[in-house]
Amino acid sequence: MIEVLTYITEHAVQWGAVVLLMLGLYIVMTRGNLIKKVIGLNIFQTAVFLLYISIGYVLDGAAPIVLEGAERYSNPLPHVLILTAIVVSVATTSLALALIVRIQEAYGSIEEDEILEHGET
Amino acid sequence: MSIVEHLPALQVAVPLIAAPLCAMMLRPSIAWPFAVLASWITFAISVALMDQVLSHGTITYNMGGWSPPWGISYVIDPLNALLLLLVSGMAAIIMPGVRLGIGVEVTFRAQRLFFTVALLSLTGMLGIVITGDAFNLYVFLEISSLSSYALVAMGSDRRASKAAFNYLIQGTIGATFILIGIGLVYMMTGTLNMADMANRLTDLHGSATVQAAFAFILVGAGIKFAMFPAHAWMPNAYTYAPSLVSAFFGATATKVGAYILIRFIYDVFGAEFAFDEMHVGWVLIPLGLAGAFVGSLVAIWQDDLKRMLAYSSVAQIGYVAAAIGLGNHDGLIAAIVHVFNHGLMKGALFLVTACVILRLGRADMTSFRGLGKRMPVTMGCFVVAGLSMIGVPFTVGFISKWYLILGALDADMWPVAVLIVMSSLLSIIYIWRVVEVAYFNDPPDDVKVTEAPAMLLVPTLILTVLCIAFGVATKITVGVAGLAANSLGVYP
């Protein structure tokens, strides 16, 4: 039991990422409301950002800028990568929201079952 | 420094720069020739790169002069070169017809933006194929995906928005899975350069993190590749997208997914790890064959030609997946050649649909009645490309299936070879349905239809002729695919 707990606490960030990942995916798959799907997708992507940021962490590492007295620095590369991924995620979200506006205009609803109901033409 | 040295950068830069310029042009009548010119220059660069690769071997280009593994490098080996040729060639052939094709389907206001998004999509696909950096691959994947969602949403049917939304959700999940996989590999190797990754991963066999990374990338690329059972986004997206977008995507988008799969399985992770440790063949071959049967069977029952072709793509992608899973020289040749050949025939078939939709406004089975007499050239193209889809000798479809069966026999899997032949027979049925309606039914008297205009007919004819040309002269496709298989370390 103790081993399991230490295993979990030692990898708290990774576990956090896994939980968020599953939550996001679950929301995307089970919710019928398109906005909620997009929110789920965002949670799903945030989990990956967390995972990446955790890769860059160096024990006792300072922020990766020139600092007085700092000997070790965190790895800045994953941070930069995730900045790019965040931009992608923002673009995806805005495109998804734009599509939802168009779906609302075309069908008068953003609930998936209602769209399917009167959507076969 | 001559311009020839910078061709790898220009390959991606030309469409990338042309895209925002198109958005600034207020009239589609100006944006269109500009986009055509950009796509032709891009194609010329691909041809030049292919020529260089064949005469001098693999090209490595360091972006901004930063040497790898610090900088981003573009690596062009025979596999990349062939895919670049396919993607840019399809764009160059289809782009001239776009003006007419989208005239009936996309609102005038959106037309110039259509060219912008199409060029961005082209940029993304070329970037995925050309780059030697794993994270760069993800960025280009998202560029091509985001523009693909927008292109699908431009369809005139209101269901296009819903199809694009579903495509967006599933595409994003797929891309994010690839991102997780790349992150896990980075965690273990500390590098993002694919060649460097491949070197360092050889010492890491047995690591659970690397195995998880492989699984994530396999699933992510599988979704992008529309591999059964992750193909759900494709039929609707291809059915409701503007016809020429379907033609371009049917010929290229899923092929890029196949490229990612081949590159990561054979190059980055290595065939030894993928096949001996992860037994990827046991995933790809059964799913590929299942996809071939399910796709063909569902295609038989479709009334809308675009939807039928989309399900036929599910089946053809199944063959590619199975070929990748065979893991021997002939199998890999079959995968690469079929990626190229299927691009040609699916492009031709979707262009035929575009011609029919332009003239009749729809492409369901009843609208094909008597078209064999009314649109003889268009339907002739359909018959030739359809025969190629079935795999009749002297067409490209025969070449790829021939190598696929050779690969299956080489791997001592004769049941696989039998199943491939059986599923090919199913494609006869769905192609025949259209041929029967078009040639053995009388045209309705009240509808006067003439042959499609030259702007659309010529691209269709070019692709159809290529379907036969590459089926007779196989030196380019099979020869380059053989070189590609060798460069991936899979020897006969």
Give the name of the CATH architecture of chain A: Orthogonal Bundle
First-to-last CA distance of chain B: 39 Å
Order of helices and strands of chain B: HHEEHHHHHHHHHHHHHHHHHH
The radius of gyration of chain A is 20 Å
Backbone structural class of chain B = mainly alpha
3D architecture notes:
The complex is a heterodimer of chains A (121) and B (492). Chain A is an all-alpha fold and 121 residues long. The radius of gyration of chain A is 20 Å and the shape is elongated. The model of chain A has no long low-confidence stretch (mean pLDDT 88). Chain B has a domain of 168 residues. Chain B is built from 20 helices and two strands. Chain B has a two-stranded antiparallel sheet. In chain B, helix 5 runs antiparallel to helix 6, helix 9 packs across helix 13 and helix 14 packs antiparallel against helix 17. Chain B is globular and about 70 Å long. The two termini of chain B are 39 Å apart. The model of chain B has no long low-confidence stretch (mean pLDDT 90). At the A-B interface, helix 3 and helix 4 of A face helix 5 and helix 6 of B.
